[in-house]
Amino acid sequence: MKRISPAITQLIAVGCLWTFTLLTLSILLFIIAYILIQGLPWLSWEFLSQAPESMGRRGGIFPMIVGTFMVAGLAVLIAAPIGIATAVYLTEYTREGKFTFIVRFGADCLAGIPSIIYGLFGFVFFAIALGMGLSVISGALTLTLMILPTIVRTAEEAIRAVPPAYREASYGLGSTRWQMVTRVVLPLALPGICTGIVLSLGRSISETAAVMLTAGSALRMPHSLSDSTRTLALHFYILSREGLSMDKAYATASVLILLILALNLFAYWLMRQVTRRNG
Amino acid sequence: MYRSKINSALIVPVLLCFALLLTACSSQTGESVHIVGSSSVQPFVELLAESYLKNNPEENVDVQGGGSTAGLQAVRTGLANIGTSSRMLTAAESETFDSAVVALDGLAVVVNPANPLSKITSAELRDVFSGKIANWEVLGGDDRPIRPITREAGSGSRDNFASLVMEGNPISRRAITQESNGAVKELVKGDPAAIGYISLSMLSHEVKALLVDEEAPTIENIQKGHYALTRPFLFVTKGDMSPEARRFFEYVLSDEGQAILEEEGLVRKP
Amino acid sequence: MRQEKLIALILQAVALSALAGLLLITVFIFKEGLPLILRTGLKDFFFSSDWEPDAGHFGIMSMIIGSLAVTLGAMLIGGTLGLGMAIVLTQFCPPKLASFLKPTIELLAGIPSVVYGFMGVVTLVPLIRSYLGGPGLSVLAASIVLGIMVLPTVTSISIDALKAVPRTYWEGSVALGATRWQTTHMLMLKAARSGIVAAIILGMGRALGETMAVIMVAGNALEIPGSVLDPVRTLTSNIALEMGYASGEHREALFAAGVTLFAVIMIFNTIALTFARRTIRQGRGQ
Known about the structure:
The complex is a heterotrimer of chains A (279), B (270) and C (286).
Chain A: H1 6-39, H2 45-49, E1 52-53, E2 58-59, H3 62-93, H4 98-112, H5 115-129, H6 136-160, H7 164-172, H8 177-206, H9 209-215, H10 232-241, H11 246-278
Antiparallel strand pairs in A: 1-2
Helix pairs in contact in A: 1-11, 3-6, 3-8, 4-6, 5-6, 5-9, 6-8, 6-9, 7-8, 8-11, 10-11
Chain B: H1 2-26, E1 33-37, H2 42-55, E2 61-64, H3 68-76, E3 82-85, H4 91-96, E4 98-111, E5 119-120, H5 122-130, E6 147-151, H6 156-166, E7 176-178, H7 181-190, E8 194-199, E9 208-209, E10 211-212, H8 219-224, E11 230-237, H9 243-253, H10 255-263, E12 267-268
Parallel strand pairs in B: 1-2, 1-3, 5-10, 6-7, 6-8
Antiparallel strand pairs in B: 3-11, 4-8, 4-9, 4-11, 4-12
Chain C: H1 2-15, H2 17-40, H3 42-46, E1 51-52, E2 57-58, H4 61-91, H5 95-110, H6 113-131, H7 139-164, H8 167-175, H9 180-191, H10 193-209, H11 212-218, H12 235-242, H13 248-283
Antiparallel strand pairs in C: 1-2
Helix pairs in contact in C: 2-13, 4-7, 4-10, 5-7, 6-7, 6-11, 7-10, 7-11, 8-9, 10-13, 12-13
């Protein structure tokens, strides 16, 4: 058999790989387009601002929007300071060693735990052992643990990307380590840190299994952190699975997709700011 | 192991207790009516509460799921004013609780509209779901495998189906399991080989309901007690009800309340 | 200076919170689930497919097999596509385009899993049912949906691994007259091997742990699937399906399934992290 020339092999291989890539991109495009085409016509101000009626078959999704942002927002509010502090400690306050290894290992393992396990844990720990019940706060604390590794990882990368010269200059001017961190390093790393936070917010909004087991599925407007709530993703799941109203389900899904698109675009824009500055 | 058992037995009441305490704290006007129980009944009670509160904005009705047994537990401990159940009470339970049927629901056996079959007997149904009959040809249909669709363990519909049809035979391990009425219906709608059971209130022309033992799942047949796959929706109480709970209870049994349930596809109380 | 020490101490304590979270999760999941495994016996729990909660039978073998089947399928699809994309983005694509494509692929990771499951039910399942046969809800449907879901994980970690290979390797190979493809598959992929293995294993962890999408497209039948067109129940979907009503032993059994899942994922993570660390070391030329 004649040997195929390397140039032809390359052509075939690269052709295949590009086909894979285009296939993936078209799947992504298809999902987004499908949901938006089916859902956008049903989207209106009333839908966004009204409470649902008869289990969601009529009316809007306002309580779910509020519930989603309460759960996801609170999770980010708690996880961000912890995550950033962890990253600062790992990068600025200690040398690579056993301690950093253990902390990183813990964070990496946490990142790999499936959301259903978070759900089971949040249910027995926050909802039952700590007596928080199925509530906004149980859901938020569960999500906090879930997004913590992402925030630590991205904050660490952002802090490491700050050139050492800035630190030396700061020390040269006589500042303490803490002053150097808060006045020089963190402001410079801020866009990178925010990228991680924005992406974590997106992940919290998308999460379903963990929230279902910890925040419950009450249709009412949550009035306090101890009320049960139903997030948008869970509402979409229930609407579409119970066959209550496909129109409302698609409309809810398009709200979710638009939110995720907006958050990802924002994160992308933030990242561009960083690369532009550093590059 | 004693500890985890206690823990498990306590969990639902503890959770409910907590939820109820919180809602009790947050309500400003009068006593709230707490209703806990069957997840099959829950959506209907939510609907009733919705319209009840429209006319009586000063009242407060709080509806939670958790299952029929959890509902009874909550009534026993006084955490709920009314428990809901989608099954008859056992003899022991009837001694402790008062119960009233607020509506009847039928389980419709549904197949794809393309399926030529129009009726089935309970014995055949049992054999289909236990896996003994695996081809539609045996029942007089086309030559294609039967794909039974069941609900998840613990769901009220599955429990009712098992006790009304299966007579102790286990449901086949091959049966596809779906987690809601809507999902079962959606699957039957798309698959000519499928057979499933859904609440009468979910029935529409997209799927075909079979006659069971020559009886159609109609409101009339259920009222007369002819249709075998019928289950009651009960309101369960213990001792004297609070005035608020009584008012809601009466609303549900009133013509207006019953009309709402009927509109949702349930059958009026007999 | 004393203030500085205090700050360092506080930061150190906070840094331990991730680890504390991990420990809490481990302790609580095992505390709830382990007693039942021990009571049922390892053999009857892991090697029996008899799952009948009402009768007190808790054998999870068919779900373990189910989880492995869909994970394997997902990796065949998601691993191939993901690695392929990583190669394209690092080796055969203008950097400008790559810097646009990478966040686009990461958008795939942001789409809620319920949306993936839903899309699977409305588009993929009917296709499989009408063209390939079976109920449509199947190992195949779950594998394809999961494959797409794990793709961003595989791609982004593989990209990092390929980028960590020193540029000089590539230059040397091309200078010797190798084509770019020869360079890629003979040199770059070998040099980045550990990182790619890590990407695949982490992707497997993702697929194994995914819940909501699998419930919707896998069919959840308890029988061990005989072909890719048969329905299947995974460990995760079993937990989410039955958790709503479960109490007593049944609930413990679901936690025990959680323990199993947790243990497998932790083993995966540890292996992946070991491989990932090896790449970093290689990348630094140590």
